[in-house]
Please model this.
Amino acid sequence: MTATDVPRTDTASDVRFPDPYEIETPPGAEGWQEMYCYYNLFLPQRRDKDAAKTWFRNGMHFPEPMPPFDIVTADTAYMSTGVMNTRVFALPPALGLDVRCLNGYMYMHSLAVEDPAEVERRAGEFAVRVGHYYQNWPQLYASWETKVKNHIAELKAITLPALGEFEPVEHVLAGRGITEANDLLVAYQAILASLDQVWSLHSEMLNMGYAAYLNFLMTVKAHFPEIPDQTVAKMVSGVDVLLFRPDDELKRLAAKAIELGVADTVAAATSFEALAGELRGSEAGAAWLAEWDVSADPWFNFSYGNGFYHHHRSWGDDPTFPLTMVGEYVGRIRNGENLDRPLDEVEAERDRVVGQYRALIPEGDERTAFDDALGLSRVVFPYVENHNFYIEHWYMTEFWRKMRELGALLVRFGFVGAVDDIFFLKRTEIAEAVCDLQFSWSSGGEALGPAHWPPIVAKRRAILAALKRWTPPPALGPAPSAIVEPMTIMLWGITDEQVAKWLAQAAGGEQGNVLEGFAGSPGVAEGPARVVLSPEDLDELLDGEILVAPITAPSWTPVFARIKGAVSDIGGIMCHAAIVSREYGLPAVVGTGSATATIRTGQRVRVDGNVGVVTILDD
Model:
């Protein structure tokens, strides 16, 4: 969900965000539009309509320019959000999202229901539909988990044909009739259909989970208008969610290595493949490897990024980071450290805050409404985080693996030179390549793809590299009037103040040594900054440093045991960095907008998570 974008009419300034139709193509990226389908683009024929809207860049989910195939993740994610809002649950004030790609980056504009009569009509539908979900949440959530796991199993079971010299003889003798040429087409269609279905499941309960929390937030603010969002968030903290489980598995493996007497070997390893070769020679080593396998399926299907890009590999694909963390945990356990998250302290603080504010609410209907809203938000809140592991991490890890199987088939027949080249073709172009391969394999003739696709892939690789060097503006079009939609504020960190800062930067304003953002997690900490722009930089993060990142991914959770505080460019009170910091008792300031561009690694900074301010203490 995003803010309702209304042209700002009360500003004394003509400052606005750039017109999307006046943005120039970065040098070296000429022809970038050919990488995407027409429905992804700002079409010249729609200039009057689209230039009049405010578009926010979704840097939280899509921080990099989209490779041509990878944009299917944006397509299906926005589609699923829209259909649940608009068609399934009939949210009274909100429809879905208009989405555009500009120089490879994703921008979104919300579609609102503005007619009061229509809002009221939709409210009747909404009450019946969402009421059913809230009343039956535990059963529906259990069913949801089963459905997602079944879809993951079905995706893994999709088999790409061998396309050998002859159709398998068993097919012929069974009189099957249908051939592997058709199997290839069906397999590709099934992969895309699976993605579409699972992302519908992704959004099935998600907005209802957020809505329950938002209802609690509004209930509290009705009594205490000045209460900070961070204080309200404390009231639902201390809830165990699946995103902490992979880190818990690393701690378990460290303890198991000590127990089995292989800790020194494990802690010294830099390559899992080499470690496995060494450990297989002993009973204890083999036992530890078996424990690794138990943890890996499914918990290491954990993307280093957010799962939306093909190059966001998982711990299972590249176990370097989890292996490093196991070694680190071995040392911490031997030093007598307690690796458990401070759940007791978090829960005690949660209960104290709830008791303090609850006592101020009059007994009777008002206190009952508070209790009901709090109880519902605690019931549904785990889903808000757990869906992320099931879909963005576990499912998407398997999705990218299945697409790489198709890429390997295209490599074998010379259509592309490397497996990942497939991601530089649009979904429709891969369908064309599949047809070409069907034709040529069926006839015994020569496919045209090997002459057609390699130069296109090479050109697009160069274009994407040029787009990565471009800095996209945070918003496009006229400035909005007021940001009032709570999820826009809490998840993305887009507020009136943030918009004002963006406008000041657009007008040439300078950033000083004080950065303002959201008070994501309470506390104050000082330390040297470590700017981490990608998962590859995590190994450089040292104990006692302040993590500064565009946004953190759930798979980064283990490093929160190292750091003293966290700062992010993007995000609001309910973003990942804020939630994890609260669970670890670390101060965090999120949604600063420009921390990674302003702070340099090694600079000493102060993170004040009580008020949402980051101060650079030296030059």
